[in-house]
Amino acid sequence: MQKPLEIALHRNVVLQIDSPAPSIKVENWLRGEPLTTFEPGKVYIIEFWATWCGPCVDGMSHLMQLQEKYRDSGVEIVGVAASEAAPTADEARSKLDAWLTEKFSNLNYRMAFDSTGEMKKLWMEPSFSFTIPTSFVVDRDAHIAFIGGPTKLDEVLPKVLNGSWRASDQAKAADRERIEKGETHAREKALKKPIYDKLGPAMQTEDWKTALSAIEEGITLLPDNFDFRVTHAHLLLHKMRDMEAGLPVMRQFVRDAIDRESKHWIYYGLFLLFAPCFDYAGLPSAERFAMGEELSKHIVALPQGDGSKFMSYPMVAQYYHKSGNKDRAIELVEQALKALDGPEPISNDLKQHLLPQLLQALANYKGEKVCHGTICVAPQKDSPNVNGVAEEQT
């Protein structure tokens, strides 16, 4: 029997370069005039985004700049808010409208709202686009010219406007790579669904044996899946407290995190070993701290890049503090705080997420109130909010 993905491919409904652009079907136009058809001779950027998506919000000013820069060249940008979170569609629309008024009162491009899922079905799903922000560039003949992240628009848009992009080898190669990744993601998602269908209820009822069985089934199918791997270690170490089975799993997770040089894997390795919410009484102290040292030294040595390495610094500092090196813990937190205001680009979303954690850690380690700009934090007992359940990542 053919799976839905295979049926879609067989019917040639994959949305890609040169495909006719789907229609625009939205519930409301919150900013600008409604767009019913793509006008010949114009180029449109259809941007899927949400207010809760940090990179989406960070990129809105740039989209406004592009709209201003290329308006006379026939470019029209259309924001599509199709993923807003609220109990009802009316509440989502009202919150979005108020948010736009507060944050972007001078928005210079159209903004559409859709909670029916119709726009996702027409645009996101057929193109294997699983994350936001995602930009679709519609060419002058109402055909798709580009699908991808909005950070690529500076490079792509001038070439679309001069007519050289769609036929180029670069465009075709990028689209092939995008579709291949999308197909892989879609197949993995289909494989993961029955695992999550078993795992979710088992975790809610604290049926750890069933949860473990589901996770082990998932790892057999997808051995490198991050969510399965971290939940496997979490279940064994912190729910079932099976150190005989859990320690080898944790050791392998640490090795793989370092081999991958993955900031995300390293963070969760440290989290499983040093988050204050867990009881480590049954975990051999020497081995726990040895793994912590290995992970900590590796993440600190990685280049700053986009600043995401600093996500691990609260946990790295926790390792050093617990190992008795309070000065090193304070030093690392202060380094991270300094980097947030440094010249290298760090997204506002990351800054807002990290700043409270870093300040609280610094106050706790110093045992006194600390301030950063206008924000001051007093010391208190560590009590982070923790969720050890693997969740489907879109």
Automatic annotation (TrEMBL):
GO terms for biological process: cytochrome complex assembly; response to stress. Keywords: Cytochrome c-type biogenesis, Redox-active center. It holds the Pfam family Redoxin. PROSITE patterns: THIOREDOXIN_1, THIOREDOXIN_2. Residues 15-166 form the Thioredoxin domain. It is found in: Cell envelope. GO terms for cellular component: cell envelope. GO terms for molecular function: disulfide oxidoreductase activity. The keyword Nucleotidyltransferase does not apply. This is AhpC/TSA family protein.
